[in-house]
């Protein structure tokens, strides 16, 4: 395993959490270089030059292994599988791998997108609709996990990495308007994730959850004021 792995990311970014969890779950030693997303950057924050030089879209997460850089969470998860010899989050059987990749794509579209719709939502009706779509997705994923233990088979895979940030911020989402009941199967699956040693490094403190909720409440206030002023 290459000993020189760095993750440029931030706890508030769900895409960074995917990668951070996968690094811990695979037991890959790494350095975490905190780069807050621009909206969460303190005014005096100095963005590392290495990040500016190598991130194609200036988005976190970005990962360095040795002298090579990659960005974009799902390609990064795949690249780390090829690049680093450590316990894998991809099954060896080709049809099982195909299932993992299908589920990764499904989760990104059907769960992550509405999740982001909840916290970036401004209009209560849209927040409610995004919340319902998210709950429907949690139900589907909870059913997968009930059948095999994990989201795509009987071991954790990159599909679990892709979905994991939802567990991390679920209470924050509820505080931001996710009002429908959480499917019990999703909660049971969440308990299984919390038992993994890789959970602790990505779990939010109460302060982090409060900061997440506070940031998006204030984002909503600003957007609503702009709308009232006819300047959305
Ligand atoms: N498709 C990318 C999305 C990454 C992304 O949107 N990152 C956000 C933070 S959560 C970002 O860095 N935005 C640019 C900025 O904040 O300046 C991935 O999966 O990694």
Folded structure, characterized:
It is built from eight helices and four strands, in the order E-H-E-H-E-E-H-H-H-H-H-H. With 232 residues, it is an alpha+beta fold. The chain has two domains: 5-83, Glutaredoxin (3-Layer(aba) Sandwich); 94-214, Glutathione S-transferase Yfyf (Class Pi), Chain A, domain 2 (Up-down Bundle). A four-stranded mixed β-sheet has the order 2-1-3-4, covered by helices on one side. The radius of gyration is 18 Å and the shape is globular. Glutathione binds next to helix 3. Residues 13, 15, 37-39, 58-61, 72-74 line the site of glutathione.
The first-level CATH class name of the largest domain: Mainly Alpha
Tell me which CATH architecture of the largest domain applies here. Answer: Up-down Bundle
How much strand?
5-15%
The total of helices stands at 8
SS content category: alpha+beta
Q: Strand tally, please?
A: 4
Mean pLDDT: 96
Biggest sheet, in brief?
4 strands, mixed
Q: Tell me, what's the shape?
A: globular
Helix content: 55-70%
Strand order of the largest sheet: 2-1-3-4
Structure keywords:
single chain; about 230 residues; alpha+beta; Glutaredoxin; Glutathione S-transferase Yfyf (Class Pi), Chain A, domain 2; 2 domains; 4-stranded mixed beta sheet; 4 strands; about 55% helix; binds glutathione
């Amino acid at each position: 395993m290459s000993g020189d792995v760095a993750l440029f990311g931030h706890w508030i970014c769900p895409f960074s959490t995917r990668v951070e969890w996968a690094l811990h779950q695979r037991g890959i030693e790494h350095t975490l270089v905190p780069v807050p997303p621009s909206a969460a950057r303190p005014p005096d924050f100095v963005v590392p030059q290495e990040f500016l030089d190598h991130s194609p879209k200036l988005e976190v997460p970005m990962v360095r292994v040795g002298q090579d850089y990659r960005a974009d969470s799902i390609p990064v998860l795949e690249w780390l599988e090829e690049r680093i010899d450590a316990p894998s989050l991809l099954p060896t059987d080709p049809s099982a791998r195909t299932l993992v990749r299908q589920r990764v794509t499904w989760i990104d579209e059907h769960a992550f997108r509405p999740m982001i719709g909840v916290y970036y939502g401004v209009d209560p009706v849209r927040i409610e609709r995004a919340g319902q779509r998210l709950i429907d997705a949690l139900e589907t994923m909870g059913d997968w996990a009930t059948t095999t233990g994990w989201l795509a088979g009987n071991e954790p895979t990159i599909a679990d990495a892709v979905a994991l940030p939802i567990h991390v911020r679920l209470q924050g989402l509820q505080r931001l308007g996710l009002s429908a009941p959480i499917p019990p199967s999703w909660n049971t699956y969440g308990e299984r994730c919390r038992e993994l040693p890789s959970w602790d490094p990505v779990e939010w403190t109460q302060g982090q959850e409060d900061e997440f909720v506070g940031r998006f409440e204030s984002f909503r206030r600003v957007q609503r004021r702009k709308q009232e002023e006819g300047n959305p």
